[in-house]
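In the design runs reported in the main text, the only information available to the sequence generator was the tokenized backbone. The following block is the verbatim input for one such run; it is reproduced so that readers can re-run the procedure and compare outputs position by position.
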């Protein structure tokens, strides 16, 4: 049975794990910074506002740091300027993919569902590869990440329109429409790669999923696109629990099934698009993490959703750290697939054994 205390306990434990993983990850790199020094740098960055001065429409905020630990200037530059943006962006992307995967598995009532099932990843791939191949001729001045974000949302909206008839969106039809659209968009990506010329290397690197070159503007622009949908998804966690009983039973209990489904799909697509747009195609996070957390905390989405999101953040930070720890950096999408596929096969095998 779900209790507020149990939810808080799991969330605090996973939040603590995330802080530890972020600190350890920021220590790793060509120049090693001890985790203790990383913690001091991060604490020194915590400041409180003391005064606000207005100059026309602008506001100048004066802050005072809460802590004053002794650290070198080089360590501050390495941690705050280079590593922390990448680590936090990995946490944001993992958070968004795991949260969206949890919702997708709930809507489809299938532990094999993941965020790409409604065409978000394929749409982002078309947008990103199209930008790389076509370049500056895309409309509205979209950059690479803007093109990927737009492509993801257009694909998800297209799948929904195709699957909707007479105001209803059957889950089976949505699944089939998603598969068909993914296949078509995969062909579009292949055609673009065929004509990519010298830009094919850059396109393939994006498709493999990576966080190289992450910056603070990317962190700040991605954060609200993930946090706001997640907060709204939490409001519908109870309705999703009821929908697990079946759409007819949920409707008889007062749930507006079609409206709830539309909102959940839209919010999940937005969160997924925000993550995929900045990191490329990263598989298995939205599939494995919710599946594992469901085994640990149960199917109640009021606890499953926040715990899966936090676990997804820690998982992607850890895998990205592993991806950049070797002599040559490997795209993190390759690492998540290499780790995720065998682990998922193990889970499936264990499930078969228990069912015998």
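Verbatim output:
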């Amino acid at each position: 049975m779900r209790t507020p205390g149990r939810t808080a306990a799991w969330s605090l434990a996973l939040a603590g794990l995330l802080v530890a993983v972020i600190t350890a990850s920021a220590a790793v790199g060509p120049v090693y910074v001890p985790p203790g020094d990383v913690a001091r740098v991060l604490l020194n960055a915590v400041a409180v506002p003391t005064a606000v001065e207005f100059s026309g429409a602008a506001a100048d905020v004066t802050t005072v740091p809460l802590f004053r630990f002794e650290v070198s200037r080089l360590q501050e530059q390495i941690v705050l300027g280079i590593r922390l943006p990448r680590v936090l962006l990995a946490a944001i992307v993992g958070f968004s993919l795991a949260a969206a995967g949890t919702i997708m598995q709930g809507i489809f009532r299938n532990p094999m569902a993941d965020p790409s099932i409604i065409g978000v990843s394929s749409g982002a791939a078309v947008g990103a590869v199209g930008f790389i191949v076509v370049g500056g001729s895309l409309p509205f001045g979209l950059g690479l990440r803007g093109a990927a974000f737009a492509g993801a949302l257009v694909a998800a909206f297209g799948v929904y329109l195709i699957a909707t008839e007479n105001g209803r969106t059957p889950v089976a039809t949505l699944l089939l429409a998603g598969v068909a659209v993914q296949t078509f968009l995969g062909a579009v990506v292949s055609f673009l790669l065929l004509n990519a010329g010298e830009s094919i290397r850059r396109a393939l690197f994006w498709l493999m999923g990576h966080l190289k070159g992450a910056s603070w503007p990317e962190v700040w622009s991605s954060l609200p696109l993930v946090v706001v949908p997640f907060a709204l998804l939490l409001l519908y966690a109870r309705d999703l629990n009821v929908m697990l009983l079946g759409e007819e039973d949920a409707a008889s209990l007062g749930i507006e099934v079609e409206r709830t489904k539309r909102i959940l799909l839209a919010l999940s697509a937005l969160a997924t698009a925000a993550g995929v747009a900045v990191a490329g195609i990263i598989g298995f996070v939205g599939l494995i993490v919710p599946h594992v957390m469901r085994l640990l905390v149960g199917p109640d989405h009021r606890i499953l959703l926040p715990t899966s999101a936090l676990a997804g953040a820690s998982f992607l930070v850890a895998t990205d750290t592993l991806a950049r720890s070797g002599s040559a950096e490997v795209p993190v999408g390759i690492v998540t697939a290499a780790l995720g596929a065998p682990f998922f096969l193990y889970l499936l095998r264990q499930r078969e054994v228990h069912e015998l």
